[in-house]
Amino acid sequence: MIGAGGFIGSHLCEKLMAETPHTVLAVDVYCDKIKHLLEPSDLPWNGRIQFHRMNIKNDSRLEGLIKMADLTVNLAAICTPADYNTRPLDTIYSNFIDALPVVKYCSENGKRLIHFSTCEVYGKTIGAFLPQDSPLRQDPAFYVLSEDSSPCIFGSIEKQRWSYACAKQLIERLIYAEGAENGLEFSIVRPFNWIGPRMDFIPGIDGPSEGVPRVLACFSNNLLRREPLKLVDGGHSQRTFIYIKDAIEAVLLMIENPARANGFIFNVGNPNNEVTVKQLAEMMTQVYSNVTGLSPLETPTVDVSSKEFYGEGYDDSDKRIPDMTIINRQLGWNPKTSLWDLLESTLTYQHRTYAEAVKQAMSKSTAN
Ligand code: NAD
Ligand code: UDP
């Protein structure tokens, strides 16, 4: 599992250790999020998970590890919107160039590959180009994103979110071509905003103070510091959020059912959990108040421009509703957890994990 030390990787490792007999060769440059699975040495899954600290960009051990495994799961990527504008070259290299050897070694050695792409490959919805008041905007044909029929609609080159999407799309096409020409057994996963504990970092606590993580961690940080949640360009964009534990069930089904998963691209999301970013902020404010007993802030949100928040050249996805037909037919999988419930367990975790550290960091900076 490459990228095993990240958010999704840590949950997948946990699931594989707790509920299956599989052995995992965990590859990443970091292991903080899976430390609890590696130590102490008397854990029940002792010997079934092995951490290999390496950067796949430049490490000759990669092919040997792929040869040792039956299946490679590739999660490694730069995949945070704040990075797309500020580190566009790293983003393109990470999502396309660095994934090339992984695909090549799997294909040449006859090994199965589950590759993590993104819902971003769909780009904007067709409906986004209709007039604001067009009734067709309400028609699912203009916004539901289907693996085998929706077009991929990207913005212009200087809007660098689409460089991430384009790099992911090209590696999908390459994997598909390896399947068609050389018989590579593959599945491609397109995650739709998977969220939950251990996602990204809290700036200044377990990540850089000036860093900008994805929205769950940004809003958690604001709530922990009791400051208003920042709505980029009004928070009008829409997202469907899925609980990480539901999504991991889908990945496990892919791992365990190669005959039904090979050759497919799968949307993995929860179409029932759609909100605008503004609604997400309001819901998180309410849930955080419920789980902590703290009163909600008087001014819970504040508007910021995307230029101020992310810098020049930011663009957004308007709406992301996954079509669930293929994953439902092939794997019989459906998401279960409501947005309210997943926010309750996630914000309980965030509070328990970070509240004390944030309090200390804030009192230190006031004293200084
Ligand atoms: P993450 O950043 O938490 O995890 C990625 C991991 O890959 C990190 O631990 C990082 O250290 C590792 N990595 C990156 N480059 C590496 C390299 N060169 N060598 C070794 N390790 C490297 O992100 P995540 O949310 O767990 O996402 C995993 C995958 O899923 C990514 O490919 C991402 O594009 C895709 N994805 C996730 C979401 C989501 O909702 N979380 C949405 C769309 C796509
Ligand atoms: N966003 C926001 N405030 C924040 C962080 C993000 O309004 O503090 C918005 C961002 O502009 C986007 C949405 O939240 O519209 C989701 O952002 P995220 O970084 O989670 O990733 P994306 O879904 O865009 O890939």
TrEMBL record:
Residues 2-269 form the NAD-dependent epimerase/dehydratase domain. InterPro entries: Arna-like_SDR_e, Epimerase_deHydtase, Lipid_A_modif_metabolic_enz, NAD(P)-bd_dom_sf. GO terms for molecular function: carboxy-lyase activity. Pfam families: Epimerase. Keywords: NAD. It comes from the Eukaryota. PANTHER family: BIFUNCTIONAL POLYMYXIN RESISTANCE PROTEIN ARNA, UDP-D-APIOSE_UDP-D-XYLOSE SYNTHASE 2. This is UDP-D-apiose/UDP-D-xylose synthase 2. It comes from Capsicum baccatum.
